[in-house]
Amino acid sequence: MKTIIICCNYFEGKTGNLEETLKCLQKNKLSDTYISVVDNNSKDNSLEILKKYKDLNVIDYAIVTDKNVGKAKALNILFKQVEKNIKINEEDIILHLDSDIRLINDDTIKHIQEISIYFKERFSFMAFQTSGVNYFYFDIEKLPHYDYFDSKIYVAYSPHGIPGPMLAIPYKFHKLVNGYNECLGKNNSPAIYGGDDAVITKDLILKTNLPCLIPSYLQIFHPETQDINYSNFKKQCINNMLQYGYGSTGITATKGFYD
């Protein structure tokens, strides 16, 4: 089983987040891990950082878009190229990762593979931000769970999708939803609570009729969630079902939804 990481970056070089993310991936990378990054035409030092980690053999493949096309389209472009570069089997895991995410543990990818093998085709995807699940959806402690070492793997079935700055999706199901919805802004369904990741996870759950897994051991650090003002703004907008903007690139009004 391979783990194929696809990561979209936009102006996270200047914040220091991109390099911290790549450092985490460097510690986690296994022999069967393939790391790819798309840069959404950043105008900071992101390309220098990508070149550095490409030379260190941390990044296997990287591309730069001609302009900022939005996260959804950029990841779709990247993944189509990755499919041409390597052979992907149905059981392989596609790990979607924002460029400002820190993997707290150095064995995260190893455990993702182990959990995937154990559950086989009984889950639609894995999510890793319990704070986001608690914040927008439901009390995670009330969910059914499996014991996993000294932690838990929660089982969730949310028809509204789940926040996902990091998602692990079996390739078989990744093909089923055909990647990200690039016309997010045109979709006014009240069942969608905003964000590219909420849409792809909603589609995964509804099309597979399978729950997602949330391993509490494999938590991530997301700098965005540390900004109380931003988080409150985001929650208010989602709860009020506001549309952030229409167009082929999806939500555009806040950097948090467009990086």
Fold and architecture overview:
- The protein has one domain (3-257): Spore Coat Polysaccharide Biosynthesis Protein SpsA, Chain A, CATH 3.90.550.10.
- It is built from eight helices and eleven strands.
- It has helices spanning 17-28, 46-55, 71-85, 108-119, 130-136, 171-177, 196-208, 228-239; strands spanning 3-9, 33-39, 61-64, 93-98, 102-103, 126-127, 145-148, 151-156, 166-170, 212-215, 220-221.
- Strands 3-2-1-4-9-6 form a six-stranded mixed beta sheet, with helices on both faces. The chain has a three-stranded antiparallel beta sheet with strand order 7-8-10, with no helix packed on it.
- Helix 6 packs across helix 7 (196-208).
- The radius of gyration is 17 Å and the shape is globular.
- The relative contact order is 0.17.
- Mean pLDDT is 81; it is low at 185-194 and 236-259.
- SS elements, strand count: 11
Largest sheet, described in full? 6 strands, mixed
Shape: globular
The CATH architecture can be named as: Alpha-Beta Complex
Proportion of residues in helical segments: 25-40%
- Along the chain, the helix and strand elements come as EHEHEHEEHEHEEEHHEEH
In round numbers, the mean pLDDT is: 81
**What's the CATH class, please?**
Alpha Beta
Q: Describe the strand arrangement of the main beta sheet, using strand numbers.
A: 3-2-1-4-9-6
Question: Structural class, from helix and strand content?
Answer: alpha/beta
* Beta-strand percentage range: 15-25%
Rg over alpha carbons: 17 Å
Alpha-carbon distance between the two ends: 29 Å
Relevant CATH superfamily: Spore Coat Polysaccharide Biosynthesis Protein SpsA, Chain A
CATH topology: Spore Coat Polysaccharide Biosynthesis Protein SpsA, Chain A
The number of distinct structural domains comes to 1
Task: Report the uncertain regions.
Answer: 185-194, 236-259
Number of helices: 8
